[in-house]
Sequence to fold (278 residues):
Amino acid sequence: MAESSKGPKRSERLVETDEERARRYAALEAEAPTIDAEEYRRRTRRSFLTGGAAAVAGLAGWRWLGNRPEDNRAIDVLRKGHEFNEALWRGLSRQQATAPTFDRSRSSMMRVNGRHGLDDEIDVATWELSVLGLDGEPIGRNTMDDIKALPKNELTVEHKCVEGWSHIVTWGGARFSDFAALHLGVTGDNAAGFVSLETPDGRYYVGLDMASMMNSQMLLAYELQGEPLTSDHGAPLRLATPNKYGIKCIKRIGTIRFTDEQPTDYWYERGYDWYAQL
Fold:
């Protein structure tokens, strides 16, 4: 069948002529709002004054913050913000609320991130855990055989870092609540309101409230992905903290101390939040 000669071809209909383009631009200009020269100058002055005021306020605020006193290496107003968040989360969180768990098949070996307290070599075979009571006096010493004699638990959870990354991983170890019962004869509330944990060299240390430590998911972990911890991952014993950021997940624990006073914390002393709740 011959091509129809009626009307322009399809390719021709898509081409806009100079005359059509000029008419279209003229229509757009006619519809666009316009202002006179005086109104333009008025708006320009207002924008300049508004921008200038914002810049001056920003500079003044920066100088004000720079002159504020510090509280454990954080500006006092930032520290107060941390404390407000802690009070808010303490009020909203149920003490025994658990973090989401996952099927073991979704977990994999976690990357090594941070070696604080791991600089010295350690003989895992001769390692011992020192346990101190409320008065700072020793109340026990444990070997890995003692820790492994406690009921073993496996937990596949998401490890979250303050740097913004997370990883689903499987921990194996003993519940801290079982460990506390071994030394304090308690499984719930007790006289110690806090727990301090340190590496053998004392170079890394964390502090946690007892309510968080008694959570059923808080583990003294000695396995990662079903294998014994390597040195880089904190062998022979580390803390797994599903409801806390990884800064609380201390590696190579050497000392555990029960205390009535909120203990210091490595990252708290460097401007971070002490509570670190997820």
